[in-house]
Amino acid sequence: MPPDSASDAADQAGARLHYRALERLYASAPINSKFASRLSIIEKGVSRLHFDVSEQDFHAAGAAHGTIYFKMLDDAAFYAANTLSTDFFLLTTSFNMNFTKPVRAGEVIAEGRWVSGRRRVFVAESRLIDAEGDEIGRGTGTFMRSRIALSGLPGYSDQPEP
Predict the structure, then answer these.
(1) What's the domain count of the chain?
(2) CA 26 to the chain's CA centroid
(3) What pLDDT sits at residue 158?
(4) Using the 8-state DSSP alphabet, how is residue 44 labeled?
(5) If 52 and its partner were Cys, which of 25, 36, 74, 79 is the partner (CB 3.0–4.6 Å)?
(6) Residue 160 belongs to a domain
(7) Which of 30-35's residues contact partners 24+ apart within 8 Å by CB, and which partners?
(8) Residue 157's pLDDT is what?
(9) Contact 46/127 with Cβ under 8 angstroms?
(10) What is the pLDDT along the chain (162 residues), one digit of tens a residue?
């Protein structure tokens, strides 16, 4: 094996551990017990959030409230960006959204993708796709590295069960 191959394999294994820890962190956040959702980190800079929208999430006119759009878009972009920060938790400093179609009941997928930044400030985009495959929303967020160590957060530091 060439000298760099062992190092690359170790880096990839470390990245996979970080991604699984981010997924556990998402699942352990108290707010997420209110939603039927599941986070998957696909690769560095890419996340996917599966979210089941129900009538419990609707406003008076029979579609999902804007807070649901924000939750899905922000989380997908945030976790895509946090794949690049292995030591500290990121914080959302700004987020812009566009709604293109009402969210009805059913599965919605939020896809997040890191755009730029590697040290202190990160930019990531996200989009929502409904069960018909239509884009129903899009967002762009700016995230800043905090002083909160990921290793000290419940969920992130928990070991997966065998």
Answers:
(1) 1
(2) 8
(3) 77
(4) T
(5) 36
(6) no
(7) 35/71
(8) 85
(9) no
(10) 455 666 677 788 889 999 999 999 999 999 999 999 999 999 999 999 999 999 999 999 999 999 999 999 999 999 999 999 999 999 999 999 999 999 889 999 999 999 999 889 999 999 999 999 999 999 999 999 999 999 999 899 876 655
Closest CA to 118 of 75, 81, 78: 81
CATH number for the domain spanning 121: value is 3.10.129.10
Domain that holds residue 115: 3-147
pLDDT value, residue 153 = 95
> What are 29's two structure tokens?
């956040």
Residue 52: inside a domain, yes or no? Answer: yes
| Residue 153 belongs to a domain | no
Q: Which of 122, 91, 95, 89 is nearest to 110 (CA)?
A: 95
**Euclidean distance between CA atoms 64 and 155, whole angstroms:** 28
Spatial distance between the Cα atoms of 3 and 148, rounded to a whole number of angstroms: 35
Q: If you search the block for the tokens 């920060």, which residue do you land on?
A: 85
Would you say residue 126 lies in a domain? yes
Residues 6+ apart with CB under 8 A from 86: 14, 18, 150
